[in-house]
Write a structure and sequence with these properties.
about 290 residues; alpha/beta; six-stranded parallel beta sheet; four-stranded antiparallel beta sheet; 10 helices; elongated
Length: about 290
């Protein structure tokens, strides 16, 4: 996957998560429960998934254990993007028992959340398979995990919308009102950043006509009915890319796949995920 966050970004995300557990700093000596165990005690452990999923987050897990104790040895049996069945062993660990138990929850939090995101994205993408319509994520991500969740979407076979407010224009109702018209908003966007894609959100076929006249690269059809979407596809006739958003259920996804739009975007990929059920089992060594 070519959109994986940088190692620095992963390191910072993991550091913040560990600090939440350890009183504001990633200092394993602050884990008062793990300190009940003799410092010299060694352990082996496995992480197992209790349900079928698309794996994502291996590098965050590596980083969590490394920041707590870099002598812990990790052996992965899967890769990001792999589809696995319930009760699959994902990872084997060896090392100091204290370190394994201190890093456990942070590592699992990343793995279960990112695997859940990848799994949902994979399900949506599979519904659209063969249709020519791609599923997109949105900016409705968990705070601090934007890059991680967007990477997870791609691991699941989905595609990424813009990453933030800096890399593409998305001109919505309030922007249009403040600028004066769709045409003025698009013209100003082109003059400010001619290299950035310009997308316009429309709420009616009349607004669609204005966005087409303005030369928008992408037009988002917000909460259109299927009949309105079909009219929009006919009106567009390939001039701009068309994206559908709003009220995207699985049942509706199947019907939308037959209408000839380019993209369907859904915040559900990143904000309606249920964490994958994972388990870490530890065996102490004598």
């Amino acid at each position: 996957m070519n959109n994986k966050p940088s190692q620095l970004a992963i390191r910072e995300q993991v550091l913040m998560a560990l600090s939440e557990d350890l009183g504001g700093q990633a200092d394993p000596s602050l884990d008062i429960t793990a300190n009940l165990i003799n410092r010299e005690t060694q352990a082996s452990a496995t992480i197992i998934t209790r349900e079928c999923c698309i794996v994502c987050g291996t590098q965050w897990v590596d980083e969590a254990f490394a920041q707590i104790d870099d002598t812990i040895s990790l052996t992965w049996h899967v890769n990001d993007g792999d589809k696995v069945e319930a009760n699959t062993v994902l990872l084997s660990l060896q090392g100091p028992a204290r370190g394994i138990l201190t890093a456990e929850r942070t590592a699992l939090n990343f793995l279960q959340t990112l695997s859940a995101t990848a799994t949902v994205a994979n399900h949506y993408a599979s519904v659209l398979a063969g249709s020519g319509t791609r599923i997109l994520d949105t900016r409705k991500t968990l705070p601090g995990l934007r890059l991680a969740q967007k990477y997870a979407v791609s691991c699941g076979g989905g595609s990424n919308h813009r990453y933030g407010l800096f890399d593409a224009f998305l001109i919505k109702e309030n922007h249009i009102f403040a600028c004066g018209s769709i045409q003025k908003a698009v013209d100003t966007a082109r003059s400010h950043h001619p290299d950035k894609p310009v997308e316009v959100e429309v709420e009616s076929l009349e607004e669609l006509a204005s966005a087409l006249a303005a030369g928008a690269d992408i037009i988002m059809l917000d909460n259109f009915t299927n009949d309105q979407i079909q009219s929009a596809v006919d009106m567009n006739n390939g001039k701009s890319k068309l994206e559908v958003s709003g009220n995207i259920t699985e049942e509706r996804l199947r019907s939308l796949s037959k209408l000839g739009v380019d993209f369907i975007s859904s915040g559900a990929l990143t904000k309606h995920v249920n964490a994958i059920d994972l388990s870490l089992r530890v065996t102490m060594k004598s």
